[in-house]
Amino acid sequence: MYDIILPLIIPLILYIASFLLVEKKIIKKKFHVKIWNLIILIFFIVSGIGGFILAFLLSYNVTNPINNFLLYWHVEFGLGMLIVAIFHIHIYWKLTLRLFRK
Amino acid sequence: MEKIKLNLNKKIIYKLLKKVSYLIPFVTVCSLGCNGTCAAECPFGLFSDPYPGQCSRFTDINGDNNCDLSESGQINTTDSEVLNNSNLDNNINNTDISHVNNTDYFVIPISLIILTIYIISYVLIKKNIITPKKQKKLWSILLLITTLGSGLTGIILIISINFAIYLYNNIILFYHVEISIIMVLITLIHIHIHRKPIMKIFKLK
Is the Cα dihedral B179, B182, B187, B193 positive or negative? Predict the structure, then answer.
C-alpha cells in the first residue's frame, strides 16, 4: 500500500507557505524559484533516475533486495514530483503559455 | 414392520441424496473458483515481494514473509491433485515466461533514439537551420506531454494497487515505464538546455 496523501499534501503546504512569504516580501522571488528548482531536481533524481535504474534492472532480469525499496520510494517521490512539476509550471507560467503561441 | 423400516430408510436416503444434489453446482463453482485463484500470479510482475507487500493482495500462506503471488510459479493450495495436474504445470511455466516478457522494457533502444534526435536538433542549430528558441520549445512541449502521460498512468497504477482494482494493470505498467523512460531522457535534455540557470541554483545567494 502506498501513501497517496502525504507526498501530495507536504509539498503543497510548503509551496503555499513559500508563495505567501514571497507575496509578503519576506523572501525574494528569486530565492523561492531557486529553492523549488532544487526541490524538483531532488524529486527527479529519486523518482526519475530511480525509476530508470529500476526499469533497466527489470528489463535485464536483475533481481536484488534494493528493487522493492527503490520501487516504494520511486512511487512516493513520483507522486511528489508530479505536484512539484505543477508548481514548476506555475513558476514559469508565462514561459509555458509561450510554448503554445506561434 | 421390517418393510416399513426399509421404506423409511429409503425415503431418508433419497431425501439426503436430494439435498446433496443441490450442493453439486455450488461445490463445482467453488472448486472452479479455487482453480482460478490457485494458479494466480503477481499482477504487477513482482518477484519475492516482502511484507507488507506493494498491494492489498498480499498473501503469505507459506510464512516466508514474501507475497505468495510474487513467487513465480507459486500455488496457494495444498491440494495435491491440482499440483499433480500436468496442464496446470504447463500453465505455470507459461506464466513464468510471461513474467519475463512483461518486464522486457526497451530502455537502451529508446535512450539511443532520443539521444540521436537530440544530437540531430543540436546539429541543426549549429548549422542555423532551426533557432535555439524553437529547439527549446520543441523539447519543452515533449517534456510536458511525457510528464502528463507518465503522471497519469502512474496515478492510475497507484489507485489500482491501493484499491485492488486489477484492470489492464500490466498494459498500463508497460506504457507507464516506456513513457517514463522517454520523460527521464527529455528531462535530462531539458537540464542540459537550461544548464546555465540550473547551475545558478547551487549559488544560493
Answer: negative
The predicted model scores a pTM of 0.68
CA distance to A29, A38, B178, B197, B200, per residue, from B203 (Å): 15, 11, 35, 10, 5
C-alpha cell at B97: 515466461
- What digits encode the pLDDT tens for the residues A63-94? 788 888 899 999 999 999 999 999 999 999 99
User: Rounded CA gap, B59 and B69, in Å?
Assistant: 7
Question: Shortest CB distance from B54 goes to which of A58, A71, A79?
Answer: A71
Q: How confident is the model at residue B47 (pLDDT cuts 50, 70, 90)?
A: low
| pLDDT tens, position by position, B154-186 | 999 999 988 888 778 889 999 999 999 999 999
Per residue in B113-131, pLDDT (tens digit) is 999 999 999 999 999 999 9
Selected residues 83-102 of chain B with any CB under 8 Å from a CB in chain A:
100
The shortest C-alpha distance from A40 to chain B (Å) reads 11
Among partner residues A37, A58, A59, which is closest to B198 by beta-carbon distance? Answer: A37
Q: Give CA torsion, residues B169, A59, A3, A44, to 10 deg.
A: -120
Report the candidate in A69, A56, A78 with the shortest Cα–Cα distance to residue B158. A78
Q: Cell for A51? A: 525509476
ipTM, two decimals, is 0.91
Cα–Cα dist B166/B159, whole Å:
10
Q: Find the closest chain A residue to B99 by CA distance.
A: A61
